[in-house]
Amino acid sequence: MSLTAGVVAVQGDVEEHAAAIERTARAHDREVTVREIRESGQVPDCDLLAMPGGESTTISRLVRDEGIAPEIRDHVAADKPLLATCAGLIVASSDPNDDRVDQLGLLDVSVERNAFGRQKDSFEAPLEVAGLDEPYPAVFIRAPAIDSVGDAEVLAAWDGRPVAVRDGPVVGTSFHPELTPDSRIHGLAFFENEAASVPSLER
To answer: Are 132 and 184 in contact (CB under 8 A)?
Structure first.
């Protein structure tokens, strides 16, 4: 059965996430059609959903103004998977620690923006991630950190701080899994039982 995947395309690494989803689907012998979500009415048709990084206040405003926010909440309420990365994690959180962010409340965590520094402080780190057999090469760019965790499960931490969590069908990461050819984080979010397989290095 072919899957329909949506990438919330109001800001961020939209093409990179689309390519990563296609790469991950091939690695798991699944067919997928990827749609870029810019307006309401498209999310209900999606089996999988990704919300990229960018600027959290802008993302939250645009998904609200375009009527996409309630559809994302309904998607998760229907137990369909969502991967929220970097600023997407902030928007998906229950507490972004920023009054300018109209959060979705899908991840029971509080978040600190830019916790690992600004753009010039970007780095890559080998993360031990629950459910993966080998360290994951995580790319951190203006990355948030998770301050506190409620009912969410911590999947990975760096420098003593959670950087990947799961809360029901939602996986949130502080880092950018779309910027590496390793498809296992997208696999963990969308094909959980197969995610620990050898990473796909196909570009």
So the answer is: yes
Q: What is the pLDDT of residues 116-161, one digit of tens each?
A: 655 555 789 999 999 999 999 999 988 888 899 999 999 999 988 9
From the number of C-beta atoms within 10 Å of its C-beta (0-12, 13-18, 19+), residue 174 rates as buried
Task: State pTM to two decimals.
Answer: 0.91
Has 15 been annotated as catalytic? no
Query: How many CA atoms, within 13 angstroms, populate the side-chain half-sphere of residue 172?
Result: 33
Which position among 71, 86, 112, 186 bears the catalytic label? 86
Q: Is 124 a catalytic residue?
A: no
Q: How far apart are CA 17 and CA 176, in angstroms?
A: 9
CA 47 to chain centre: 15
Identify whether 178 is a catalytic site residue.
yes
How far apart (Å, rounded) are the C-alpha atoms in residues 89 and 160?
Answer: 18
Which residues, 6 or more positions from 22, have their beta carbon under 8 angstroms from its beta carbon? 32, 34
